[in-house]
Design a protein that fits this description.
This protein is of the alpha/beta class and 243 residues long. Helix content is 33%, strand content 26%. The strands form 2 sheets. Strands 4, 5, 6, 7, 8, 9, 10 and 11 form an 8-stranded mixed sheet that branches. Helix 8 links the parallel strand 7 and strand 8. Helix 1 packs across helix 9. The longest helix has 16 residues.
Length: 243
């Protein structure tokens, strides 16, 4: 993200924080898709809240999702432990890819919806699921604008290094909002855009300020940032109990 785009996102967040009476109109005006002034090598040339949306990691990059050192580098079990899922919970892993996180979550909950837009990813996920005898994971083919989950079906929606790739983040978050039960929670794991030492392509990282501005604009309340991972934010939001 260029300095000007970063500054605009920070300015919006400050504006909304201190002037709540104008927040709805401000978000409505700002939360539109625009063409980025100069597309980057890892972006799609489309901006949202001043952030250029990244390219999607395709099936050719599936080895990256299951690389041998991923557990040691990212320590995903620490995030799962910190989130404290209940055995009765239903979790949607949005952008599940080949199921890396879905399969780690599955033993802790009643059901996991493994949601992805790429059929090839879901096919690989199903093969891994069959091989490992995991029975409480259900695959769901999403669309660019919808997670294709039933209304009020999930307790959690978790997105692991996926939100920044949504071509239509506004519409996706609207359908996630609808799929969540009242009081349900959204979790974003995103590589820390504030840290230049995190060796990830720029458009595949997000700052906490940027993520909060986008998700809170969709009606979610920010709960906390769990500081448990070395490279990634673990940002927790909640759908209101009452509309």
């Amino acid at each position: 993200m260029s300095f000007l785009r970063f500054l605009s996102a920070v300015s919006l967040a400050v504006f909304l924080w201190f002037t709540p009476s104008f927040a709805a109109n401000a978000v409505q005006q700002y939360a539109v898709y625009t063409e980025c002034d100069r597309g980057s090598f890892d972006g799609i040339g489309k901006c949202y809240f001043g952030r250029e949306i990244s390219q999607i990691l395709g099936k050719d990059g599936s080895n990256w999702l299951d690389r041998p050192r991923r557990g040691a580098e990212e320590k995903p079990e620490k995030a799962i432990e910190a989130l404290k899922f209940l055995p009765t919970d239903t979790v949607a892993d949005i952008g599940a890819g080949i199921g890396y996180m879905s399969f780690l979550i599955a033993p802790n909950v009643e059901k996991v919806f493994a949601v992805d837009i790429q059929s090839e990813m879901l096919d690989m996920l199903k093969e891994r699921q069959l091989k490992n005898g995991i029975t409480n994971v259900e695959t769901v083919k999403s669309e660019e604008t919808s997670v294709n989950l039933p209304d009020g079906a999930i307790d959690w929606a978790i997105m692991v290094d996926a939100y920044h790739e949504f071509t239509y983040p506004k519409e996706m978050m609207q359908t996630i909002f609808t799929a969540l039960k009242p009081g349900g929670k959204v979790v974003l794991l995103e590589y820390k855009g504030e840290n230049p030492l995190v060796a990830i392509k720029p458009r595949h990282k997000m700052t906490q300020t940027q993520a909060r501005a986008e998700v809170e604009a969709m009606g979610f309340k920010f709960l906390e940032s769990k500081r448990v991972l070395p490279q990634q934010h673990v940002l927790v939001f909640q759908k209101p109990l009452k509309a």
